[in-house]
Amino acid sequence: MQHDYDHLIIGAGMTADAAAKAIRDADATARIGIVGEETHAPYERPPLSKALWKGDKPAESVDLGTAKSGATLHLGRRIVSLDRIAHQAIDDQGDVYRYQRLLLATGAAPRRLPFDGERVIHFRTLDDYLALRRYAVAGAAIAVVGAGFIGSELAASLASQGCKVTMLFPGAGIGAGRYPRSLSTFVDGYYRQRGVVLCPGVRVVDGRSVADGAEVALSDGTSARYDAVVAGLGVTPNGELAAAAGLAVDNGIVVDAQLRTNDPDIFAAGDVANFPCVPLGMRLRVEHENAAISMGHHAGRVMAGAHEDYTTLPFFYSDLFDLGYEAVGLLDDRFEIVEQWTEPYREGVVYYLDDGRVRGVLLWNVWGQVDPARELIAEAGPHDADSVRGRLPKLV
Ligand SMILES: Cc1cc2nc3c(=O)[nH]c(=O)nc-3n(C[C@H](O)[C@H](O)[C@H](O)COP(=O)(O)OP(=O)(O)OC[C@H]3O[C@@H](n4cnc5c(N)ncnc54)[C@H](O)[C@@H]3O)c2cc1C
């Protein structure tokens, strides 16, 4: 079967949703098609590791209502090849999608453990959430592998459900490498107080499915059995389709300031895009909801005829039990770190400085300060500990 679109979007995630809505806002009659491998219409991913575990929010509440854009959704279909000369893509069932302009919003795929199994979940999708829900009953022993954003959020959510949670991770502590050491130590203690067992400094090197569970083997020579294992090991961008079609791919699909690839009719946005980040003066690829929405929106506008650069500095947010934060720019503990606590580790601002510039800001239980943080990062400086201390929060 052949489908003809003015605007074709590959991938049906948050980026695709934002792009389709932006195209529709700019062009009431455009024919928009979205092809997505998952069987669900575009949905919000962030609640999968936090809000859906609180109260009794149904899984359907994450639906983004993409249909309102009038886009035709082709779900449960994977695009397997892209012919840039013919301006067409082909899915895994042989359907052909012809396009005038194409957006690659293929996102990212979770890194995998060296073994699989029914109760081994590489957490990314709504189906992963639904699978984990089946095993995450009170008293169940769950191993969370990884102590980054996904691992730490899931560990908190699972512990709040009454699960016996063990975190296995190679680093020194939760958020190590991003949070200042003192904050990471505090967060470790916070998790332990809430019953989470932390096993830092270990890697999962092997494992296997066993009756009603999974067994994992660790780099320290020990092994343990759990009712389920959930992994948050980071992601890799889904750039294979683009690379096979001859588009530039280097830690994601390389785009210019308008989010255009090296093919003038093909754009990329969201988790898969490696874009020039104007405020930081460097190329960046991020896995942030804010980037998915703002880049998707921007790409949609440009595809529909706008000529504007994407200049947003995306931010990230996370919830850990009743702690929460927003983070702007680069969080890297190799930078000079300036901590400013109103109440130690409960409320404060952490500045990350490099070469006289503010490169990142962590707003720890401090809200409404993302734009002032962006302004500070955009300043030419030079900055040092004295000049940044007290700059935030700014009264707005
Ligand atoms: C559990 C979880 C919690 C998160 N929490 C936060 C948070 O608190 N704060 C924050 O800022 N960010 C958070 N994020 C990150 C944020 O959700 C992502 O940055 C965002 O969803 C990325 O959207 P995307 O559309 O670019 O990519 P994706 O969401 O990865 O969507 C891409 C889609 O494309 C499909 N696809 C890939 N290849 C093909 C193909 N060839 N053919 C058809 N379809 C294809 C994929 O199956 C996928 O459905 C979280 C992410 C997860 C997984």
**N- to C-terminal distance:** 55 Å
Strand content: 25-35%
Helices and strands: which structural class? alpha/beta
Mean of all residue-level pLDDT scores: 97
Characterize the main sheet.
Answer: 7 strands, mixed
Q: What is the molecular shape?
A: globular
* CATH fold group of the largest domain: FAD/NAD(P)-binding domain
Unreliable stretches covering 5 or more consecutive residues: none
Radius of gyration: 22 Å
How many structural domains does the protein architecture include?
Answer: 3
CATH architecture of the largest domain: 3-Layer(bba) Sandwich
> How much helix is in the residues?
10-25%
Helix count equals 8
CATH-wise, what's the superfamily of the largest domain? Answer: FAD/NAD(P)-binding domain
CATH top level class name of the largest domain: Alpha Beta
Number of E strands: 25
Short characterization:
This protein has 396 residues and is an alpha/beta fold. It folds into three domains: 2-47 and 57-109 and 236-303, FAD/NAD(P)-binding domain, CATH 3.50.50.60; 112-231, FAD/NAD(P)-binding domain; 322-388, 2-Layer Sandwich (Enolase-like, domain 1).
